Amino acid sequence: MPSLPEVQAVFGGALRNDATPGHSSALWALFAEPEALAERRLAAYRRNVIGNWRSALASSYPVLAQLLGAQRFRQLADRYIASYPSRSGDLNAYGGELAAWLDDSSLSNEQPYLPDMARLEWALLVAYGAADAAVFDLAALADVPAAVQPNLRLHVWVGAALIESPWPLVDIWQAHQLAEDERDSALAAIDVRSPTAPCRALVVRSEGRVLALALTASAAAFLRALQSGQTLAEAIAAALSVDPAFNPGATLQAFIAQRTLTGFSMNDAT
Amino acid sequence: MPSSSAPAAPVPSTRLPLVAGIGLRAPHHAQVLAERPAVAWWEVHSENFFSAGGAPIEFLHRIRQDYPLSLHGVGLSLGALDTLFEAHLAKLAALVERIEPVSVSEHLCWSSAGARHFNDLLPLPYTEAALEQAVARIERVQERLQRPILVENVSSYLQFADSMMSEWDFLVAVARRSGCGILLDINNIYVSACNHGFSAQTYIDAIPADLVGELHLAGFEACEDFLIDTHGQPVHSPVWDLYEYALGHLGAKPTLIEWDVDIPSLAVLQGEAAQAEQRLRARMHNVSASPLEPGHALAA
Predict the structure, then answer these.
(1) What are the beta bridge partners of residue B130?
(2) Which residue of A has its CA nearest to B111?
(3) Whole-Å CA distances, B223 to A100, B113, B160, B193, B217
(4) Distances (CA, A) of B53 to A52, A84, A131, B82, B292
(5) pLDDT for residue B13
(6) Which of residues 185-204 of A touch B (CB under 8 A)?
(7) Range of the domain at A257
(8) Per-residue pLDDT tens for B93-124?
(9) How confident is residue A23, by pLDDT bands cut at 50, 70 and 90?
């Protein structure tokens, strides 16, 4: 009599793979039903399990699904499912490794922007449920002596993500937010196949809705520096090295208004 | 189980209202916030609100202000020995603390092995080992949440050769030993009874009324020569009959309409809830008119 973990390991293994004759003796011995009946009923479980994962991927990657079409997206989903088991009882958490997997997938040869789009869509999902942003205390910032301000460390909202890509990610993503008839003409206007000017997509959340915005190169350098824990002065320097015309005040204002920046702390490092 | 087993803690009666509620799913969120429809209570899937912030949690807080709310989990995998359990429980505990739901429930099943999750409600072998594992996890959940939970019978398409007891004996034993209550899914009983050839009435007769805190109703679909619990249909006529039978045996219980795929308009769900409500009211009326115990009233 197999132990409970053995029963579940054999049953679980059969849900992820086709019931091949290789594991059949241990598998079919589990069930009270005759083998032929058990096989059909196990297939119902397998369809359900695989179907749940397919649906989860389709719901997390709607733009990818549109870009690939239903049939190719399903093929992609099935290959991903075969390689990546679910690690959570929360089905919404399934699919976080899709971008990394696509990096190495031949599927991306034809549409090389797919991995970055997957990265963007997952970042949008993470931002959708990330902890609420604190409201930046501008009055407290104004009280900081001017001499100290360069040493401030600004806090970036935990849900903010900056995705840099050679492909026009934000344009493609925005086109896919349109109704179907408008989407096609918007997509036709974008040259999705050849790398254009690098795109820096910032993921933000406003009133519960998530969106992708395109940043300038200098604003992206500024935000990257803040994300990595550099001081305000260091972040401004990083942005100015990209573009001497960088405007720190306007950029700060925009990030604070979008809730990309949530607060600041004094530089108490040595 | 032998009656000499250790007495379980008494099951506090659920605080769900004794009326029919509806499973609340994403397609109806905006409408429910805007219109505040006359629905007695809602039940949501806990996992859909595990996020740290944002729209889902904001939504649930607003619903909680105006309606009794039940959190119904699908991912704890109470009958497994996986490594994911404590992390999942921590998320559930955080949600329960934030939302303070009227009721918390989960499924008597397994969904995971090792560090893998199958995200489905899989049947347990009805053995002493599975019983002990489920009881241990339910006790852990109740300790962590500081409240009793309700545990639901799942539908199944397969039975295990090693099962030593019936599903109903297993369910009652789990409740008695762990001190949890039972969420009795009438549709699941019907589906499993058809698939495995047992009597749905025998199942219901074996469930002590005082253990039951909630009933579920949903639709199934026929697949080849067996039934699948799809939650994508109206409640079928034989399930309504079985529901009436269950009310006769158990007395009136808070009842939920579940519909999870091909979700119809809210009005359709309200229509289903009204049908349950009608039967609940008839049952309550019968009780007040008759001095008989529920079990006797049914046999009469």
Answers:
(1) none
(2) A89
(3) 38, 27, 21, 15, 19
(4) 24, 27, 4, 27, 51
(5) 47
(6) none
(7) 113-270
(8) 999 999 999 999 999 999 999 999 999 999 99
(9) low
| Number of folded domains that form chain A | 2
> Which residue, of A79, A111, A143, is where some domain finishes?
A111
> Given an 8 Å threshold on Cβ–Cβ distance, is B75 in contact with A89?
yes
Strand B212-217, strand A199-206: pairing: unpaired
Q: Are residues A19 and A146 in the same domain?
A: no
Instruction: Choose one of A90, A111, A132: the last residue of a domain.
Output: A111
Kindly state whether A84 is in contact with chain B, defined as any CB-CB distance less than 8 angstroms.
no
**How high is the pLDDT of residue B298?**
37
Q: Quote the ipTM score.
A: 0.92
- Strand intervals (E) in chain B: 20-23, 42-45, 69-72, 103-108, 110-113, 116-122, 150-153, 181-185, 212-217, 221-223, 226-228, 255-257
Instruction: Answer yes or no: are the C-beta atoms of B40 and B17 closer than 8 Å.
Output: yes
Neighbouring residues of B245: CB distance < 8 A, sequence distance ≥ 6: B200, B201, B204, B298
Can you identify the CATH homologous superfamily of domain B20-299? Divalent-metal-dependent TIM barrel enzymes (3.20.20.150)
Out of B47, B114, B127, the one facing A89 most closely (by C-beta) is: B47
The rounded mean pLDDT for chain B is 92
Contact with chain B for residue A40, Cβ under 8 A: yes
Q: Taking the mean position of all CA atoms in its chain, how far away is CA B137?
A: 17
Is residue A91 less than 8 Å (CB to CB) from chain B? yes
Q: What angle do CA B122, B158, B141 make, to 5 degrees?
A: 25
* Contact criterion met (CB < 8 Å) for A53 and B54: no
d(CA B191, CA B173): 22
Between chain A and chain B, the number of residue pairs with CB atoms below 8 A apart is 140
Domain ranges of chain B: 20-299
Cβ-defined contact of A2 to B162 (cutoff 8 Å): yes
Task: Report the residue from A52, A56, A128 with minimal CB separation from B120.
Answer: A52
Which of A44, A91, A132 lies at the smallest CB-CB distance from B119?
A91
A132 secondary structure, DSSP code:
P
- Mind listing the pLDDT tens digit for each residue in A127-158? 999 999 999 999 999 999 999 999 999 999 99
With a CB cutoff of 8 Å and minimum separation 6, the contacts of A59 are none
Contact list in B for residue A88 (CB cut-off 8 A) is 75, 84, 88, 117
Q: Tens of pLDDT along B266-277?
A: 999 999 999 999
A87–B56 CB contact, under 8 Å = no
Interface test with A, best of B46, B92, B118 (most A CBs within 10 A): B118
The answer to whether B217 and B229 are in contact (CB under 8 A) is no
CA distance A26 to chain B (A): 12
Between A25-29, A184-188, B40-44, B117-121, the lowest mean confidence (pLDDT) is in A184-188
Of B126, B113, B116, B135, which Cα lies nearest the Cα of B154?
B126
Q: Does B158 touch chain A (CB under 8 A)?
A: yes
Structure token pair of residue B176: 């008695």
Put simply, whether B161 touches A (Cβ < 8 Å) is: yes
